[in-house]
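Chapter review: from sequence to fold.
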Amino acid sequence: MIQNNGLASKLRALLKAKMTPLWIAILILAGVVIYQQVMIVALLDQHALDHDTSDVYSYESRITNLEGRSNMHGSMIDDINKQIFYLRSDSAKFDWEIKQLQWQFPDLQVKPPAAKVNHELDFDANPGKVPDVKKL
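The token string follows.
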């Protein structure tokens, strides 16, 4: 007669026991809980890195930089809108003055300029001709 190995017989007896499926379910659930805890710790670490303000490239620091830039651009837009308002009011005033002159002198003819007007600025980035300055 062949004698069964002690470990194999114990394993067979364990698998035939009534409580075996319960223990397998408990072990699977314990493994899932441990996996979830590991994932939660990794997520907390990532969250801490994203909200660390000591790093220039952190999430919160980037949002703060973007907010500062948008505020700066907003103030620039406000200044430009004020300038547009003043230019429009000056334009309306000049238009009214031109109409008054046309009413006073209806026979006066104004000729447009013969040459095309160049509206581009002739800007010299290096007026002193310093040799180490690179032109853009």
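Two observations follow directly from the output. Helices lie at 6-16, 20-50, 59-104. The two ends are 98 Å apart (CA to CA).
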